Amino acid sequence: MAIRMPLEREPKERHVNSLIHSIMQYIKNLDRNVPFEEIQRMTMIELEGDRKLIEALQKNKRVQVGKNFLRYKPQYNIREEKDLETLMKNTKCRNGVSVTRLTDSPVNVRALIDSLVEKKIVYILKDSDGSEILFYNKVVVQPADEKIKALWSEISVPNYPDILKELNQAGIKVEQKFFDDKKNIVKKKPKVKKFKRKIKITNTHVKGLNLNDMDL
After folding, report:
1. How many angstroms separate the CA atoms of 155 and 10, rounded?
2. Level-2 CATH architecture, domain 16-72
3. Which residues, by range, are in coiled-coil regions (predicted)?
4. CA-CA distances (angstroms) from residue 98 to 104, 121, 133?
5. pLDDT digits (tens, 9 = 90+) for 151-171
6. CB 106 within 8 A of CB 28
7. How far apart are CA 159 and CA 138, in angstroms?
8. What confidence tens digit (pLDDT) does each residue in 106-156 have?
9. CA separation for the pair 160, 144 (Å, rounded)
10. How does pLDDT run across 177-197, given as a tens digit for each residue?
11. Cβ neighbours, 10 Å, residue 101
12. Dihedral, 104, 29, 22, 58 alpha carbons, nearest 10
């Protein structure tokens, strides 16, 4: 009886989008033209002669397709700090610019962002989902003069109950509960209970003197 050997399954053909994703993940970290030969060696994806794959890459806005190479094109062409500052200054979007989109580049844009934040040219706000949004700082506040700082430090700040009283006298109503909550509570020191020690004295050589009846 002949034994039928199981047929080997042919490798399932990968979808074009899956191939593009693998290629993008490799070239996006390289700030240069990446030859087809290198892409094939590093991703096991052959581009030479694959017309369907080449045409799909040509339609992708993030890829520059050359004769025998690919190059990643980030959404924002930022190469130095001045480029980022110009971009943020010219951006009229009230919602700011996503930090994720800015850092999607082979260039270390995060370092440029941190530098501008330190200089207070831009600032970062976090959205409810934790994502970071970059905004251009249109209001640049100059540091106060040292004399003004000295005068400010000399001003005595009244305590909270006095502030509330002043507000009430000025016609600004403040609920009574704020007074109750902010009253200075004086903690009473617990009384230390004194105990009388009874000492039995055995030295009774003096006649008529009973020291055990005395409170010590």
Report:
1. 83
2. Orthogonal Bundle (1.10)
3. none
4. 10, 16, 5
5. 888 888 788 888 888 888 888
6. yes
7. 36
8. 999 999 999 999 999 999 998 888 899 999 988 766 778 888 888 888 888
9. 27
10. 555 555 555 556 666 666 555
11. 13
12. 70
How many CA within 13 A on the CB side of residue 124? 17
Give the DSSP letter of residue 191.
P
Burial of residue 122 (number of CB atoms within 10 Å: 0-12, 13-18, 19+)? buried
Q: What pairing do the DSSP bridges indicate for beta strands 69-72 and 34-35?
A: antiparallel
Q: pTM of the prediction?
A: 0.55
Q: Which token pair is 215?
A: 């409170």
CA atoms within 13 A on the CB side of 60: 21
Indicate the pairing of strand 63-65 with strand 69-72: antiparallel
Q: What SS3 state is found at 200?
A: coil
- Do the Cβ atoms of 136 and 97 come closer than 8 Å? no
Inter-CA distances, 180 with 7, 64, 147, 165, 194, Å: 86, 70, 39, 13, 36
Place of tokens 């989109």: 101
